[in-house]
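Sharing a chain and its predicted structure for anyone who wants a worked example. Both blocks are below, sequence first, tokens second.
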Amino acid sequence: MSEALSAVTSDSRRRAPLAHRTAIKAMEGAASMAERAFLGKLVLRVDPAAGDAAVTGIIGVSLPTRACTSTRQGETAILWIGPDEFWIITAPDAQTSLLAGLAEAMAGLRHQLVDVSSYYTAIELAGPRARDMLMKLTTLDLHPRAFGAGQVAGSMFGRTQAVLWQVEADEAEGGPLFRLFVRRSTADYLWCLLAEAGREWGMPRQAPLAGETWQLER
């Protein structure tokens, strides 16, 4: 699992939504969890038939053609969110130059391209029990036959909405790796909920902020 990025960057005014949390692990390598702060996130709305050539020319990989899948080139990935909506995930701070390049390449095409990097953060969950933890929180069918590497889906997790992306396959060393993209305002809630879902495998409890009291619904 990738190490959590620094909570505070060279811009001292920018702070990760989960800067007050540190990476945690369950017992015997069952699961681990960390924030992946400051990843670039662009929302692209375009007719894929019209915009694919421009996207491929800039990123080097095509838009996903199948629902709820993704394509990937190095540290840049494109997630299928809807028939004409895609999320482009980049390395931290790489979205600015990519946004400019895409805007130029798509000039004349009917499209919308927005940088939402500061609106979301990502929680990375990995390990043999990561899938079991997620299954406790959502009605999505997360059986490996239905949801595998590269799959993407938006759903409710507990009482907040998030987009789930399986980055690495179950057969990968250390087990599957997932990323959940969640709004900044509910990131701490989801963090605590995931930790609670992993308690049976030794994941340490994470106390909610502001004296909130709640428990995982059984």
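Comments welcome. The longest helix spans residues 48-59.
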